[in-house]
Write a structure and sequence with these properties.
Blueprint (H helix, E strand, L loop, with lengths): L2 H8 L5 H15 L3 H21 L3 E3 L14 E3 L6 H16 L2 H18 L2 H11 L6 H11 L6 H16 L4 H14 L10 H13 L14 H27 L21 H25 L18 H4 L1 H20 L5 H13 L2 H20 L1 H15 L7 H13 L5 H19 L3 H14 L10 H11 L5 H29 L17
Helix pairs in contact: 3-16, 4-16, 5-10, 5-14, 5-15, 6-7, 6-8, 6-12, 7-8, 7-9, 7-11, 8-9, 8-21, 9-11, 9-22, 10-19, 11-22, 12-14, 16-19, 17-19, 18-20, 19-20, 20-22
Length: about 525
């Protein structure tokens, strides 16, 4: 805590905001590890299926007669997993639940390509060149923009860009915490905006597809499902982030006093890009452009080999179905070109080592996926998800909450839940099987539902101590203000959360419902049951 907060506690005075933060932290600490959480949910689904089957819990299937997966009598009944058949099914499919889980393979393949670009130094150099090359007038929006883009390379934004932004602001005579806040807003608050498809996109799409399959077994959701909306969001969040920094946060912080620092900051300087790094970036850029041209020639012309072989359309084409392959290639080849030029990747062994290091860091993710896969599979087998979705959709229809305004409540709910359950994948793995089918029945596509979820999941990352890198941000901030505590940091970031929530939700409404634009390539806005 800061000295001010400690004085409040000593005097028995606690503000409403401080009590709110305490509640968030207390709720977060009550939650077990996400791995344990999924294991508990998996067991709960098995036991719950037995109880629900005993009481003959069911729902009327809203799908038309003859639809895939629809029972002959049109009733969805609970499948009892607490039975001999249920036990046999669990034991027989435990391994395949894991190995066939859609997010597993695609995330690891995408990561292999990103790891080459990251370990070669390409992404770090690109971020430095982007931020350090910006004019003083444009530096704020450039930092927010760079923070958003950095999410393609896992923790790079947190570890490199946020400390760098504080140094840049200090070197310009501006408050370093304003620079830190701007970068943090882009990296964490803009987590679901980007110009590029990264490793989180196939991960979330896999959970969304699994959830959609509960009522439509043939529905597919690709990593590109929200790409168009992500691109638009990148520019909107960059503008909003710069506005909040310059009009709200920086004026509140005031002029920086170096005596507030916990250490001797010295002369705030950053090493500029070397000639080799600049040349490497130029050649990597040419490689990226070359790959882009080849890709365009493979997809856009009517004779393109990656278009749909039967319809000739881009929708449902090998390009979209295999987009994770192109994520791998577009990061791996420019990354190797850059590494070869600057000397960080001289042989094939360097490339292999880079990929191996990234995969070795995914141990916790693989363990998490194993238990998440079991929970999702059990939930689907039991029909509990479909029954909850049908009854939930019926309740929404009964109260008349089926229009676009429904998404305001959905986004707000996701934002609030994110305060205590900070992992995007863990949260969506739990709630996708409930809300995706429910809102599909109401009439909205899984792609639109996922886009709305990602807004709520992003905007409160900035104000929850449960966010995995929150401690790191606090440590960096404390270098510049020695008495800075959790409350001070969250109070600094709160304006971003509020403005991002309002602005991003408004963009979603305008993009999807007023302009009628798709959230991604081939992504419909509405969903209708088909036979």
């Amino acid at each position: 805590m800061s000295e001010h907060q400690n004085n409040q506690v000593a005097n028995g005075k606690r503000s409403g905001f401080t009590r709110f933060l305490d509640t968030v932290e207390w709720l977060g600490n009550l939650l077990p590890h996400p791995v344990t959480l999924f294991a508990m949910f998996a067991v709960a689904v098995v036991l719950g299926s037995g109880i629900a089957a005993y009481f003959d819990v069911n729902a009327i299937d809203p799908r038309p007669e003859g639809a895939a997966g629809r029972a002959a009598d049109g009733v969805i009944r609970v499948v009892n997993l607490v039975s001999v058949d249920g036990l046999q099914r669990i034991i027989s499919n435990l391994v395949t639940n894991f190995t066939n889980f859609p997010p597993l393979g695609v995330v690891l393949v995408a990561l292999l390509g990103v790891s080459i670009a990251e370990h070669s130094g390409l992404i770090s150099a690109a971020m430095r060149g982007l931020v350090m090359g910006a004019s003083k007038r444009a530096v704020t929006i450039t930092i927010v923009f760079a923070g958003i883009i950095s999410n393609t390379a896992s923790e790079l934004g947190y570890v490199v860009l946020i400390p760098m932004a504080a140094v840049i602001f200090h070197s310009l005579g501006r408050h370093p915490l304003a620079g830190l806040a701007a970068a943090f807003a882009g990296v964490s608050g803009g987590y679901s905006a980007n110009l590029f498809i990264g490793t989180v996109d196939p991960l979330l799409a896999g959970f969304t597809q699994q959830a959609a399959n509960l009522i439509d077994p043939n529905y597919t959701v690709g990593p590109e499902a929200n790409w168009f909306f992500m691109i638009a969001s990148t520019f909107v969040i960059s503008i909003l982030g710069a506005f909040v920094t310059e009009k709200l946060v920086e004026p509140k912080l005031g002029k920086y006093n170096v005596n507030e620092a916990a250490i001797d900051l010295g002369s705030p300087t950053l090493d500029p890009l070397t000639k080799a790094e600049k040349f490497g970036l130029k050649m990597a850029g040419l490689a990226f452009v070359g790959l882009g041209i080849l890709l365009v020639l493979s997809v856009l012309p009517e004779w393109g080999p990656l278009r749909h072989p039967e319809t000739g359309e881009v929708a449902g084409s090998p390009f979209l179905k295999g987009i994770v392959v192109f994520i791998f290639i577009t990061f791996a080849i420019p990354g190797f070109v850059y590494g070869r030029i600057v000397g960080t990747m001289r042989t094939d062994r360097d490339v292999i080592d880079a990929m191996a290091k990234s995969i070795s860091s995914m141990g916790l993710y693989i363990v998490l996926v194993f238990f998440a896969a079991q929970f999702v599979a059990f939930f689907g087998w039991s029909n509990l998800g479909a029954i909850i979705a049908v009854n939930g959709a019926t309740a929404l229809q009964n109260v008349g909450l089926t229009g676009p305004e429904l998404f305001f409540f959905f986004i707000a709910m996701c934002a609030i839940i994110n305060l205590s359950l900070g992992s995007a994948s863990a949260q969506w793995a739990i709630f996708a099987p409930i809300f995706v089918p429910m809102l599909m029945i109401v009439g909205y596509s899984p792609e639109v539902i996922q886009a709305a979820y990602r807004i709520g999941d992003s905007v409160t990352n900035l104000i929850t101590p449960m966010m995995s890198y929150f401690g790191l941000i606090l440590a960096v901030a404390a270098r510049y203000k020695k008495d800075l505590g959790i409350g001070t940091l969250i109070a600094t970031m709160l304006p971003y959360t509020l403005v991002f929530f309002i602005g991003w939700t408004a963009l979603f409404y305008i993009w999807v419902f007023l302009l009628g634009l798709p959230v991604g390539p081939g992504s419909p806005t509405y969903y209708q049951f088909t036979g």
